[in-house]
Amino acid sequence: MPLCALVPERCYFGNAPTLVQMGRQCGQEFVISWLSDKIAAYSATLSEADRLTAADIDHLALEIFGSYSSLNLAEVMLFFSRLAAGVYGQVVYGSVRAENIASRIPRFLESRQKEIDHYERQREELQRRAEEERRKLHAVDYGTYKSLLAKLAAARFAGDEDAARAYLAAHPREFDAHRAFQSAHE
Length: 186
Description:
The protein has helices spanning 2-6, 8-13, 19-26, 28-43, 54-67, 73-85, 98-102, 105-138, 142-156, 161-170, 177-184. With 186 residues, the chain is mostly helical.
């Protein structure tokens, strides 16, 4: 589980199935068993006195599956990894109960949404920069544009630059920087 915490973006945007999808494919009993295993692994990180009983583990597994089945498997592992690390507050001695652990899930969901928003803003910024770079590669200066427009008008539209401009507006790929630059120097 700790490896999930290293790359949370993969947990959110990866291809891990949700609990409900897993339930449909493998059966609800399998999902409850899988959740119980993750909860038991978390419980093993607690002091002997605070470890959950088998009944508590089953209760928590059912509660998570029933209330948070839209989480994917990686997100569940990320939650328990962060819970064990104290990210959502320490579950203090004597208060380790299924309800106290489940009450930390809404905090996880809030931080999850903030992280997803952050990753999406980063992705949008990268896409915007890539688009700017792409446009720079295909850009021509005004003098080159006018020269190419005149050549196109002369070659295809009997010197009518307005007709050439209208054609280029309808067929923008025909006027890309590479061909335009090459033909401007011919």
